[in-house]
Amino acid sequence: MGTDFVALLDGSVPAALTSLLALPADELRRAGQDYGFRAELAAASQDLADRAYGLRHRPALRELHATLALIYDQDFSGTPITDVERDTQPVLRDVAAVLEHAVLSHETGRVPAGDLTGHPETGREFVRWLKAMVTAHPAGRHPLYHEHLVERGTPEDMRLLLAQETNLDPRFDDILAAMQIGRHGVEKMEIAANYWDEMGNGDPAQVHTALFSQALAAVGADARYIAETFLLEASVSGNISAMLALSRRHYYKAVGYFGVTEYLAPRRFRCVVDAWRAHGLDEVGIVYHDLHIGVDAGHAAGWFKNVVRPLVDSDPRIGREIALGAAIRLNTSQDYLDALLLRMRAGSAAEPIAVPTGG
Question: What is the pTM of this model?
Answer without folding.
Answer: 0.94
